[in-house]
């Protein structure tokens, strides 16, 4: 009975997405200007990863799953953010490791001052452990922007992600 309900649920989802796809195809033919695709929560940072929608949701999920939270602050019109996003999304190692995190990318500033310990610049990436502590000890290589990463820093970001996971096991 359980399998049957899964199968019918799956078929329903397929039918709905087919109907939506047909509607979407129809709309594209009718409009000459290509509509901008709706933004997914990944915003291009890794479409197959699970992203949270809000800071509050991310904190809650981090605390309850005992996974560290990785927050990426960026802006769509910032060339540095775009460059980092491209390298981040194309790195198989980063994408694989990112599955072990609660993920959030923000294109706006939060009111939480802990998320801008040394200023509000983009792109910046902070790690927060499940005790909801910002890991001020996991930084990039720039002394004037501690949480900034450039595309060339992707291996440093990878090792910082590993560090965030390791600290999780040793400290909690």
Automatic annotation (TrEMBL):
CDD domains in UniProt: AGR (cd02960)
Keywords associated with the record: Endoplasmic reticulum, Secreted, Signal
GO MF: dystroglycan binding
GO CC term, one of those recorded: endoplasmic reticulum
UniProt superkingdom: Eukaryota
Subcellular location: Endoplasmic reticulum; Secreted
Keyword Iron-sulfur (UniProt): no
Keyword Ubl conjugation set for record: no
Leader sequence residues: 1-21
Family membership noted in the UniProt record: Belongs to the AGR family.
Family matches, as PANTHER family: ANTERIOR GRADIENT PROTEIN 2 HOMOLOG, ANTERIOR GRADIENT PROTEIN-RELATED
Record-given protein name: Anterior gradient protein 2
């Amino acid at each position: 009975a359980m399998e049957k309900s899964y199968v019918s649920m799956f078929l329903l989802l397929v039918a709905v997405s087919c109907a939506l796809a047909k509607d979407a195809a129809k709309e594209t033919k009718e409009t000459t200007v290509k509509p901008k695709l709706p933004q997914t929560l990944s915003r291009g940072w890794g479409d197959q990863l699970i992203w949270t929608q809000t800071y509050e949701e991310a904190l809650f999920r981090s605390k309850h799953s005992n996974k560290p939270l990785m927050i990426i602050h960026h802006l769509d019109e910032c060339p540095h953010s775009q460059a980092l996003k491209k390298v981040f999304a194309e790195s198989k190692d980063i994408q694989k490791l990112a599955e072990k995190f609660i993920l959030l990318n923000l294109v706006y500033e939060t009111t939480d001052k802990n998320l801008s310990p040394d200023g509000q610049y983009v792109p910046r990436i902070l790690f927060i452990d499940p005790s909801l502590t910002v890991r001020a000890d996991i930084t990039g290589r720039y002394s004037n922007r501690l949480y900034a990463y450039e595309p060339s820093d992707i291996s440093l970001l990878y090792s910082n992600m590993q560090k965030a996971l390791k600290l999780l096991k040793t400290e909690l």
